[in-house]
UniProtKB/TrEMBL annotation:
Name of the protein in its database record: CoA transferase
InterPro entries linked: CoA-transferase_III_domain, CoA-Trfase_fam_III, CoA-Trfase_III_dom3_sf, CoA-Trfase_III_dom_1_sf
UniProt KW Phosphoprotein keyword: no
Keyword terms of this UniProt record: Transferase
Amino acid sequence: MSGPLSGIRILEAGHMLAGPYCGMLLADLGADVIKIESPEGDIARRLSPHRVGPHNAYFASLNRNKRSVVLDLGSAEGQAALGRLAATSQGLLTNMRPAVIRKLGLTYDRLSAYNPRIACLALTGYGLDGPYADRPAYDYVIQALVGIMALTGDPGAPPVKCGYSAVDNSAGIMGALGLVAKILEGRGGQVDVSLFDTMLSQLNYVAGAWLNAGEPPSRYESGGHPYIVPAQIFETADGHLALFITHDDFWRRFAREAGRPEWLSDERFSTMSGRTANRDLVIRAVESLLRTGGTAEWVGRLAPLGIVVAGVERLEDALSGDLARSHDMVVSIPTGDGDLAVVGNPIRFPGEPTRYEPPPLLGEHTSALLAAGERP
């Protein structure tokens, strides 16, 4: 592989999402990521009903550009092989529970005997230590515990889960950052990243309002922003529109285009503070206006003015749209059984295209990595 991480070998003892996504991001950037799997393989290999030849679509979306080695880490032979791989690696990542991580020797304390400079990342639900350390954690549970569900949805409605695995993906990104930082330091050591801490950190300004002013977080209708009005989802004549008017200059452009000159002089509308103080009045007025036209019409009128606006699209429309196409964000990976479609890596280096290889078959590289003692 080519890329800024070329020449760096990282072992991944990961499953499902957070760990494999972390490893895939590093592999896309050129790292030699070796996925250590049990004889049964990552459960993600069997999770989705969709396949391209031997490749499961769920597994493929998280495991391209890697190599696979099968090890029984519960055996002496598996531990010896892990040690040999660790001796030639700069990093290791895992997203198992702390008790399992320690039992299988996937910590710096254990692997430093083979390589004192190896950086070991543990992606766990609640951290390697603490009262919750060995509780099982999934995306759903973390969203519930950290307050995301309580923040999501319309006022008075039941709590709502975010529509995709925001926790696992965010933790994977945070883990990649922490692991690369530790590798760059060059001294080796343990990196401890938890799903709970990751999501709590992402509630930054919402948490700051409570911590510094005692302002509890609230839900606002149609996903409204707590401080900016109007900034939410609006219904149009034929769909929905996301409108985000962040300052008064944008508001003036919006009011003129909408043919509402009175909104330029009425202090309830004309300033950010006025609009926030009169949220319901402003929202009702904008709702009434936007229902008079279709989504595409409003985007066509407002976007050229620099106003932050977009139609609420479906994923399938985004994947097939001009924006994704212009960024090469939908990639076809040739396999012997047809092309495998995946979403590309968002990190790009101009003039250095990302290389995409199929995900490994279970144990595909075991012989090459263990029998030959291959080095990076």
